[in-house]
């Protein structure tokens, strides 16, 4: 049950991540740093309010007695901020290809990190799934004719965040709240600086703009929280393969919702990736068991 809860939470987190463009299409034109700062600010407010409402107190004594765990949590916040900075920059500058390729590369980094640092062993199914995913990625890279350094760094950074969360033994709510708190001073400085110079969209916009900026916190906290819950309860290699749900949904939304022209290169790449993902999720061990029982006299 624990494994299925982790797998289901990972899948749901990537579904929500893939659907995020539906929310961000209504976002006003806003400075990237202001958007990121408000995400941090309202994340801290939302999580702090929930803890207060539920009467939950942070385990400060335990955190002080486990400096390594505290260090991992505090490091995870800036690492995630780097990922969000790169992702937001891609959205605000039209670098859709860089974002798409990064989403493709992150699961591969997750699997590599799982094998190297967590000593996970890949099943034959996952070996085949990884081979198919690599084939799809290699086809895209060969077709586009360049090595996407930005996407490589972005993909590796998010995979590193997943590795950090795998080593954190506190629940997702506590770690996410501490991640927000460690970034809050910088976020408040940016918001204050933009407000003093009269360039704050939050101050100048109407209430709809304000609510959209505030809503960026729960819109991103929910998938991140589910992701953190999942990595603590299932294998990183499984999370890595499930992560292909995110770029696949973004691809489908781009075609059927935003009316973009289908990219034949990405279509072939997605076909390879989805074939690998389906193979990795097929319960072949159950099929083998059923076959053995069928042939029993």
From TrEMBL:
It is found in: Cell membrane. Keywords: Cell membrane, Membrane, Transmembrane, Transmembrane helix, Transport. One of its GO terms (cellular component) is plasma membrane. Residues 9-141, 152-281 form the EamA domain. The keyword Transmembrane applies. It comes from the Bacteria. Its main location: membrane. It is a multi-pass membrane protein. The chain crosses the membrane at residues 7-27, 39-58, 70-89, 95-118, 125-142, 176-196, 211-232, 239-258, 270-287. It holds the Pfam family EamA. Belongs to the EamA transporter family. This is EamA family transporter RarD. It comes from Aeromonas encheleia.
